[in-house]
Input
Amino acid sequence: AQSVTQPDIHITVSEGASLELRCNYSYGATPYLFWYVQSPGQGLQLLLKYFSGDTLVQGIKGFEAEFKRSQSSFNLRKPSVHWSDAAEYFCAVEGNRDDKIIFGKGTRLHILP
Amino acid sequence: GAVVSQHPSWVICKSGTSVKIECRSLDFQATTMFWYRQFPKQSLMLMATSNEGSKATYEQGVEKDKFLINHASLTLSTLTVTSAHPEDSSFYICSALGQGMNYEQYFGPGTRLTVT
Output
């Protein structure tokens, strides 16, 4: 069965520092991969997605993610975080081409001033 | 971008009553809508998939008689929690997928349900 693992429940970084959020998936073939952000009391917003092609994907708000097939990973990165980036981040997978998205447990990002 | 709304944004109901949550795609036709449940500080769990004009497909462990889903039009899906109990209190989120939208689901802002 497909699954998504986000090993870090909480991450704290200082404003202006770089960020990497980890995501590993378990699926036989290459799934569709997504990163979503959820701010308190708000819905999910898609940051970026990977379907095929270039393994380095650029998203909104300065985020990027790199698909590494050998490591079954799709880590999210940002070179310099802003206080407004504090939120919950979810990695997600769609693997069966049935439109069903499986979410990881999420990583809560805290920003130190 | 595509917009999905949910109504109400929050609702409090008494145990034993039923409550209906609406999910609307505002500027596109949603051939498929999904309903998720999110417990505090946890991830989203897919409850069911609904296609316009057909019966919803429920995930394993989700009671279809308790969580009634209707997708009567291409812009509206409803989730009715019947005979609600305190353990049904949760954050319910819908998403919508339209034709040609390249697997991108658009999520509603969610509905906070509290059963007292």
Observations:
- The two ends of chain B are 37 Å apart (CA to CA).
- Chain B touches chain A at residues 4, 32, 34, 41-46, 49, 93, 95, 97, 102-105, 107-110 (CB under 8 Å).
- Residues 72 and 99 of chain B are 17 Å apart (CA to CA).
